[in-house]
Each structure stands twice: as structure tokens, then as C-alpha cells.
């Protein structure tokens, strides 16, 4: 079993059936098309890390099943240290790419979560889901796969459960159970890095009751499986990403968010890990969100590190010393460390599931999600503030205008400010813009779920009455002091 390299990964993607669309156009080769090549490059950089002597320890590990060297993102996480290694890898990926690499992230978490959940289902029902999952994990290890993870459904009317929707396809569901597998249909929405993935790990997107048992499904499918169409979403920097001339206006890396349309897709039994076991969907959500919301603190910290660097570049490109903004830069660093440290803390005080999977402390992990949905936006605001008006969308001419034979020379002359060239200043400004208004936005607010959902978990996992007892005992208050009852309406 060999560690895959960049070329292995790119060639594997080139061999896949083209089933990804953007702007109504089918993308024949995700490794070269402007709409997808940047997210592919982000993931290729992870393969570079696995083959870099200085980074190998971070990007590779040993299989608990075979004892062989594998990519870390295909591994089992059975100690808090394994999950902290997950965080370090994520932060390093962001430092190297400035953006999300979901294909070496979400599917990794999904397989570990389902390792715990299949253990519980098998124990309760006598099924063999975990053995199926082990077979697939060995396949992923051997082939060094990138695996996107898909939880979020289109959902439809948020006030109605899936079985009450007028359009059943708003939630991915089991349409038919056959002797040799299942037929699934519906939509997973806003799924990160599908274009860069070789497979997609599907999980139930919510907690379901018996009426919605058709939505209680987990399986893994090749990204190019028959019946699956991926539609890539648009974002503010698209126009510049498609610009092939002039000064580079976006990084060579990037992110994609796909809508996954499943049109009667057949999944064989050996790739199915949950089928109608609605009683266990709460466990999937609980375990997944705890680990994911802990580790996402590393993602935003890593991108925040890049924003600090971009802000210093912009200050200097504007002719100012970065020391002028040192208090703001320190505030940015503090915010980065809060989300990273909270995530690591959630892992450190977590616990081992009977299956061996390590699960983060839910209260601390969901607290981190609330911070992830707030602090990075302050870092982005400070990046904009330090950079000046030139980094805001709509404030800078395009590279084509800078290259114009009629007026480009004048633009270039007046846009030079500090000791660096106009080209360097423009690139630095576009990076700050991209980090704060373009490819850097997805994942902070709703990545891994909404902050309101996280606050609900914080509410129900904080032992409020226990804290009341602490307060009473400190002051020797013997009587129970209850919340006042609402008066009955007449």
C-alpha cells in the first residue's frame, strides 16, 4: 500500500465520469476547468504534504487495521491525540491554501462517526454494518481516497418534517430496498469540495422519527456514480476566477459548494451502513457535530493566520509599517487561538466510545461552533480595515483594465503606493478581498450546522440547576428558589 502523490490523485480524477455542471455547462475535466481546478489544487497540496519529508508526520499515519502507512485523512481516530492531529492537519491545509479542503476532512469524520453508530446498530439489531464499513475503509486506505461528506439536505419547508413535504426530493431518502442494495433519491445541498472528491460519504441530515425512516440512511458512493448529478454553486469571485488574462486576481486554490442531485441511484449492500434505523439518527448527529464542531476551530484559525499575513502585506503595500496595526493584528491572533484552543479542549475532555471512536465533549464543541460563527468575521473585518478601501469588492479595476493599452499605464502608475510593484499590491489586495468576501467565506457561519443549533445544544447540555445548587450552597441558602409560574390566562 503506497502513499499516493499529486499525479496519482489528478489522474484518478481525470478517469471519472463527467457529472459536474456549472453555468449550465458540463465540466469534462475537473482538474483543468476554471470552475473546479482551484479546489482540486487545494486537495493536491494535501497529497504534496503526504510526500514532503517535513510534513509527512502530519499528513500520514499508520492504519489500525493493517499496520501500514496511510494518508491521515483515511484513518481511524480513537484517541484525543488522533483528533488533535486532525486539527493540526486542517490548520496547516488552510495555511497552505487559504481555503477549505473538505475532501480530506468531512468524509474522514463521517467514517469515524459511523464506526461508532454501526457498532450500536449491530449490537442492538444483529446487523453487520460495521463489517461492511471496515471493508470500505480498507478500500479508502489502499487507494488514498479523497472523500466528501454530505449531511445537509435541501430540506424544503423548515416547519415540516420530510414525510410532510409536498416535494419528497428535498431530503435524500430511500426509495426502494432491494435484495442486493437500495435505491436512493433526493438532494444534498451545499456540499463542500465534491468536485475534488473521488467518493461521497452520505449521512442523515437530521434526527428522524418513524414517519421519516426512509431518510435514515448512510452509505458511500463514487462521486461519478450513475444517476448522480452535481451542480456547483456560484460565488462573488467567479468572474475573476474565469479571467484568464492579466494580473492574477485569485489564488491558485479555492473552494466549491455542490448541490448533489440523486436520481434513483442504486447503492449495493456492501456500501450501505444505515437503512431505516431512525432510532440511531440522533447518535449520528450528536457524534458528528461534536467532533466536527471541535475540529472546525482549526480551519478558521488557519485561514485567520493567512489573513494576518495578508493584512501585513497590504499595510506594507500601502506604504505603512505593519506596526501601525499591531493591536489589531494581535486581536486577530487571539481570535484564531480561541477557536483552535476551544476545539482542542473539547477533544481533550471528550471520551472513548465503546467502538473505540473518540468523541469530543459536546458542550465545549458546540460552544466552539458559536465562536466559529462570530470570531472569524471579526478577523475578516480587521483584514478589510487594515487593507483599506482597495480590498473591498467593487473598488479596484480588473486586470484587463490594468493591461489596457489606452489607460492601463496611468492606472498602474497611480495604484503604486509603497515600495512594492503595482502588480504585487493588486495581488495582495485581491487576496484580502478573496479571504473576506470570496472563497474564504463558506464554512464559518453554517459549516457543520447553524450557530442557533449549536446554542440549543449548549442550552440543553449546560446543567443550569446544578449551577444553582453551587450558588445556594456557597451562601447556605436552604430553601429552594423556583422560577415564578406564569399566571393562568382567564
From TrEMBL:
Keywords: FAD, Flavoprotein, Isomerase, Oxidoreductase. Transmembrane segments: none annotated. InterPro entries: Acyl-CoA_Oxase/DH_mid-dom_sf, AcylCo_DH-like_C, AcylCoA_DH/oxidase_NM_dom_sf, HpaB/PvcC/4-BUDH, HpaB/PvcC/4-BUDH_C, HpaB/PvcC/4-BUDH_N. One of its GO terms (molecular function) is oxidoreductase activity, acting on the CH-CH group of donors. Residues 6-274 form the HpaB/PvcC/4-BUDH N-terminal domain. Gene3D superfamilies: 4-hydroxybutyryl-coa dehydratase, domain 1, Butyryl-CoA Dehydrogenase, subunit A, domain 2, Butyryl-CoA Dehydrogenase, subunit A, domain 3. Residues 283-475 form the HpaB/PvcC/4-BUDH C-terminal domain. This is 4-hydroxybutyryl-CoA dehydratase / vinylacetyl-CoA-Delta-isomerase.
